[in-house]
Structures are given as structure tokens and as C-alpha cells.
Write a structure and sequence with these properties.
The chain is α+β, with helices and mostly antiparallel strands and 80 residues long. The protein is 32% helix and 40% strand. It has a four-stranded mixed sheet with strand order 3-2-1-4. The N and C termini lie far apart (37 Å).
Length: 80
């Protein structure tokens, strides 16, 4: 029921709002670690094919990747 709930969660609201303004999530990246905190990046593309980015937590990047069906990448320095 996560794809069509009667009350949307914040991730669904965010993805829907971005889509309404003409932006679609292209991919998510887990890109940095500081201490025990991991950081993610959302890569968006707008209707004019311009890319823009948002930083977020790694958890948010994973959830948005799963909900949107877009690829999730993890930088090699994080794996090491």
C-alpha cells in the first residue's frame, strides 16, 4: 500500500511536488561520511534537461531511490 496510501508520507509529497514543477529524480548517491554520519545527494533533472542537486541524509537518499525506482550509487571512498 506504500505506492497509493490514503495519506502520503513526506517522501511521496516531495517526489510529487518536484514532479509538478517539472523536475524528476535522476539518481541518488551516498557520497560522504563524517564520523558516523553518512550524507547523500539527490540528482534532479528539470524539463529543460538541467541538473540540480540536494544534499540529504543517506537514509533519505535510499528511501527516495526506492520510492522513485531510480538508481542508488555509493561512492568508492564510502565503501573503503
Amino acid at each position: 500500500c506504500y505506492k497509493n496510501p490514503h495519506i502520503k508520507n513526506i517522501y511521496q509529497i516531495y517526489l510529487g511536488s518536484m514532479s509538478e514543477i517539472g523536475a524528476k529524480l535522476e539518481k541518488t548517491i551516498i557520497e560522504a561520511k563524517d564520523g558516523d554520519v553518512y550524507y547523500g545527494r539527490l540528482v534532479w533533472i528539470d524539463k529543460n534537461k538541467r541538473q540540480f542537486f540536494n544534499q540529504c541524509s543517506a537514509g533519505d537518499a535510499i528511501i527516495l531511490s526506492l520510492l522513485s525506482g531510480k538508481p542508488l550509487f555509493i561512492m568508492q571512498n564510502i565503501v573503503d
